[in-house]
Write a structure and sequence with these properties.
- By secondary structure, the protein is an alpha+beta fold.
- It has six helices and eight strands.
- It has a single domain, classed as Maf protein.
- Strands 1, 2, 3, 4, 5, 6, 7 and 8 form an eight-stranded mixed sheet that branches.
- Helix 1 packs across helix 6 and helix 5 crosses helix 6.
- The chain starts with a strand and ends with a helix.
């Protein structure tokens, strides 16, 4: 396993992925790095279904490129579930209010929708499903979560997306205020990637 393709062009996400998988001994490439395009339509009803759709479609496209024919492809689908809002935005987290809407606007809107709601009813979690598509056609999918509450203001510069409103009571800060190493230790993506790393290590040891 010399290379792994992670099906994203999001550089923030790739920084986390490379940090967590760095000791696998494989080069971690983003889909953007490879120039591979796929026609994945993420029409699943769960994070797991969408991650698998993305991984399988990207792997299919990679098989057409000799350099990447035998490469493992990973993909994730992640989002924020807010219990008070019936687990919105959920699988639509990236598309909530439109993909081109800034997260400052999205985050403030979610805070506004929870106006007057007390802490114990502001429970939320980040969810991340990580899927792997292997050269032999088999697949694996795992899930990681991080529990917290929705804060009352946008705070923090270290994260992205919904991190600045995701408050971790036990640490007294938002996900966007955590140091990158600590965030990777606690985060939904970190948990999911560690589970996937264990699968890869067992399969390719």
């Amino acid at each position: 396993m010399d290379k792994i393709i992670f099906a994203t062009g999001n550089e923030h996400k790739m920084e986390e992925v490379r940090m967590i998988l760095k000791d696998l001994g494989a080069e971690i490439l983003s889909q953007k790095d490879t120039g591979i395009t796929s026609d994945a339509v993420e029409d699943g009803t769960t994070f797991e279904e969408n991650a698998l759709i993305k991984a399988v479609a990207t792997a299919k496209a990679a098989r057409e490129v000799p350099e990447y024919r035998d490469v493992v492809v990973l993909a994730d689908d992640s989002g924020l579930e807010i219990d008070y809002l019936n687990k919105e935005p959920g699988i639509y987290s990236a598309r909530y209010m439109g993909e081109d809407t800034s997260y400052d606007i999205k985050n403030q809107t979610l805070i506004d929708r929870l106006e007057g709601v007390e802490d114990q009813r502001r429970t939320a979690r980040f969810v991340c499903a990580i899927a792997a598509a292997f050269p032999d056609g088999s697949t694996e999918v795992v899930r990681g979560t991080m529990e917290g509450i929705i804060g009352y203001e946008i705070i923090g510069e270290n994260g992205f997306g919904y991190d600045p409103i995701f408050y971790l009571p036990e640490y007294g800060c938002t996900s966007a205020q955590l140091a990158p190493e600590k965030k990777n230790e606690l985060s939904h993506r970190g948990e999911g990637l560690r589970k996937m790393r264990a699968i890869l290590e067992k399969r390719y040891r």
